[in-house]
Amino acid sequence: MTISKHSSLNSADWSGKLFHVNHFFRTKLPALFKRYPFAVIGAVTLILMGFIAIFAPYLATVDPQAVTPLNRLKPPSWDNWFGTDALGRDVYSRVMYGARVSLTVGLAVAILSTVIGMAIGLVTGFVRWLDPIVMRIMDGLMSIPSILLAIALMALTKASIENVILAITLAEIPRVVRLVRSLVLSLREQPYVEAATASGTPLIKTLLRHILPNIAAPLLVQATYICASAMITEAILSFIGAGTPPNIPSWGNIMAESRSLFQIAGYLILFPSIFLSATVLAVNYLGDGLRDALDPRLSRRM
Amino acid sequence: MSKTKLLELKNLCKHYPIRKGILSRIAGYVHAVDGVSFSIYEGETLGLVGESGCGKSTVGRTILRLIDPSAGEIYWKGERIDQLTRAQIRPYRKEIQAVFQDPYSSLNPRMRAADIVSEPLRNFEKLSQAEGRERVRELFALVGLRPDQMLRYPHEFSGGQRQRLGIARALSVKPKLIMCDEPVSALDVSVQAQVINLLGDLQKEFGVSYLFIAHDLAVVKHISHRIAVMYLGRIVELAETAELFNRPSHPYTEALLSAVPIPDPKHQRKQIVLGGDVPSPINRPSGCHFHTRCIYAQERCKVEEPKLEETSPGHFVACHFKLNT
Amino acid sequence: MSQTTGKPILEVEDLRTYFYTRDGVVRSVDGVSFSVSEGETLAIVGESGCGKSVTSLSILRLIASPPGKIVSGSIRFHGKDLLDFSDAEMRDIRGDKISMIFQEPMTSLNPVLTIGRQIGEVLELHRHCTKEEARSRILELLKMVNIPEPESRIDEYPHQLSGGMRQRIMIAMALACDPEILIADEPTTALDVTIQAQILNLMRELRDRTRAAIILITHDLGVVAEMAQRVVVMYAGRKVEEANVFDLFEKPMHPYTLGLLNSMPRLDDAASKRLVEIPGMVPSMRAEIVGCAFAPRCSSATERCSQESPVLQDHGNKHWVACWNPVRHGARV
Q: SS3 for A93?
């Protein structure tokens, strides 16, 4: 481990930080890997995708929108690593930028639907008379296939990433509400919640102090699955033209534009789908790993 | 033992409706508690015993207003409290606390021990960080836990230690009455003794009263000043401890006492083995609920419900043919 | 008390059952030996975690493997080591020659099968009866365990019966094929005390009729006093004392046994008697225990106790104790 000779850095400080990071990579990471190999692979893949998304402008070789009709439908070569599409655009650069859309949509939907779903689920679990009303609404939402729901919502508004996020979120909320509600219903009966009431804890504080921390783990796991599902839904929506506007490259869009050409230029579909699949798989692995790690019963089994 | 009356129950009832069918018609009632009356005085322990389904836990939870009573009156220091709303009851929670049965699920697994123990305190008093820590340290010492365990999580403690945490939690607000719902049933024998002794010591030191709910008669004997025996939602006998064990007057009490195995292989005693099972609290036998299993049952018992009567000072029995009197 | 012929039919020698978990090796049973004679009732007493249940599961080879494993030792049934038996041979033994009743009658019965079907299953497997033969045998069994109206019960489901009745069904299932050994793992712990009295009574009657040996696993010394002829006391996976029931209660020699007897609240105690505690708690089974497992809590512990694991010694009349400083003239405090 070499210590940087930069004079502007306090060498003692810097080596301290590096030491901790190094310590992590040397001891904790291998142990984590041994225990949850797939989850670590998933996490690393996601970090890589995030890296690609953030640094897309630097990773892309050319402007993803740059149209070069003379160069169209060229297979992968040294100039265009992933080939070019029907308009001569460099597929590699478009795929790099596509990561931004997918990850943004995935994360945004996961966070929004989890937060909103949790709020609704908490209230429904505790306020008895609201329960049947809210659950019937959720049942209604769930009975519409999420794709169709999203399409319908997109048809009502103009195509944009924000609207895609909203549409998919709406489709995912009912599942979160169901999960939270069932967790709250079972947690409500737990003796320690009763004990809190007996201790004089008011309802809101009970929710925050006792219920919330105990639903955080299953919710987190659910959020990762929602992220994966949202990314695929976005791709499907874009594929059928009801998603991200065509000028913004997203993995779904790239595949959509090339779907009639896949027999002659299969690489156009291949590369974006590899990236999409890898990302979704990574998210799923991470979710499974989190679920196993956070389940207190599994970790304490004799 | 002072004679200040803290808690009084008058004809407490709790019925759960059973709904059947699409329209949720009421098909019947589970009579969990059916007219229970007793009082608890300052500094004493009232034991409440009975087998599963007798309603003793329900009585305890109703007093704590974790469940709302269906009928009857509850008085605390002379004031009627059963009709108060949840919000109005809150200040009384400082005076009536609880220790629960399961040491594993009565503590929030994601909270640190110090936070669990101080929760009632934080609900009622504004304390600075330092003051709070000091109070928790005192409480830990009172129940025999070390201060270095304050920041641990429940799963790092043994069953007996967790129950101590529960007791510390109940004590934190200096209550007058602690409802102990089967506090030692889930513990090993050698640990039970520790916790029972602890409860006794705390009572001597602070004069706190206990409503000690249990099914184990031997345990109840060691801690109670008076004992009430319940069967199918009613009290069948209430007396001072020594009196109850020496001169049980209700056939059920007699059977209960004889059923407890004595750890002495040479011990020969009259064993009354009750036939049949405990009837369901939905379809209770008519008249005296116990008549279906009572070895002394007569015609009158099938028809007429016996009232709780005082046969000698402090000794109440609900039976037409009281024994040993 | 029933008579035993004194001829050992089951001999457990130096049994070790370990569980390999992520956090370490749990030595649940760490060198336990005992024997059961024909018609004898042996009680294995101890608190939770002492290994008594795991011992009984090991006898029937019901240990989930992984993470558990019977590491060493022998379990000789009529001279043949059960640990050498194949799975098929063990299945023949289970329910037929050695049967078991469990603690929770609510969860040990299949909720979707009728009582008749469940008892019938045992008969079908081991006795290859026809449906009629099975039915009459089932009725006989139900009558034997004092189930009222057996003809209608036979077609009922477990949820229609009370806890006490379910435990009787379990006993009927266990005795269906006239086993030589009945292992009862905390059979009355989950039951009310008046029902417990019924079940213990029933077990005593049946024991006299069928002359089956019983291995009774329990933590309740009162039950031991009522049922057992010989008692094995276990602590932290090891046997610390073994004696006949009278000697154990009158002259307990191991400090743990004495502590257990003294700390139990008893009906015949004076009401305000303060219970004698055993300080401390049961050691964690994950770490290797050096020396005597009870030493940290023992008032008679010496240097030797924490370094050398005590060996079982016969103090006369087949009273075995594993202690360097056994209690002299052991008497209740």
A: helix
Confidence of residue A301 (pLDDT cuts 50, 70, 90): very low
Closest-CA residue of chain B to C225: B265
C259: its two tokens: 């502590």
Subunit contact B218:C267, Cβ cutoff 8 A: yes
b/e per residue, C115-144, with b = 16+ CB within 10 A?
bbbbbbbbbebbeebeeeebbebbbebbeb
pTM of the predicted protein model = 0.81
Long-range Cβ pairs for the range C289-295 (8 Å, 24+): C289/C27, C289/C30, C289/C236, C292/C322, C292/C323, C292/C324, C293/C235, C293/C236, C293/C237, C293/C238, C294/C235, C294/C236, C294/C240, C294/C254, C294/C255, C294/C256
Element (H, E) at A228: helix A212-239
Question: Which of A198, A202, A213 has its CB closest to that of B98?
Answer: A198
- The per-residue pLDDT for A214 is 85
Task: Say whether A230 sits in a helix, a strand or coil.
Answer: helix
- Give CA–CA dist C36/C71, Å, rounded: 22
**What mean pLDDT is predicted for residues C133-154?**
88
| pLDDT above 60 for B203 | yes
Model confidence at C32: pLDDT above 90: yes
Dmax (CA) for chain B in angstroms is 68
**Residues of A with Cβ-Cβ distance to B110 under 8 angstroms:** 213-214
Q: Which of B102, B106, B120 sits opposite A200 (nearest CB)?
A: B120
Provide the H-helix boundaries in A76-190.
Answer: 91-126, 130-143, 146-156, 161-188
C55 closest CA partner among C39, C68, C37: C68
Question: What's the pLDDT score for residue B210?
Answer: 96
What are the φ/ψ torsions at residue B31 (nearest 5 degrees)? -90, 85
C-alpha–C-alpha distance, residues B227 and B235, integer Å: 10
Q: Which residues of A219-248 are buried (b: 16+ CB within 10 A; e: fewer)?
A: bebbbbbbbbbbbbbbbbbbbebbbbeeeb
| Residue B177 confidence class, pLDDT cut points 50, 70, 90 | very high
Are B123 and A198 in contact (CB < 8 Å)? no
Closest CA to C47 of C210, C184, C198, C235: C235
Indicate whether A298 pLDDT > 90: no
Q: Is the peptide bond before C66 cis (omega within 30 degrees of 0)?
A: yes
- Report how many Cβ contacts below 8 Å link chain A to chain C: 6
Taking a contact as any Cβ pair under 8 Å apart, which residues of chain C between 50 and 69 contact chain A? 67
Residues in chain C, overall count = 333
Digit-coded pLDDT (tens) for A201-255: 888 888 888 888 888 888 988 999 999 999 988 888 888 888 888 888 888 888 8
pLDDT greater than 70 at residue C274: yes
Separation CA B130–CA B105 (nearest Å)? 29
pLDDT of A8 > 50? The answer is no
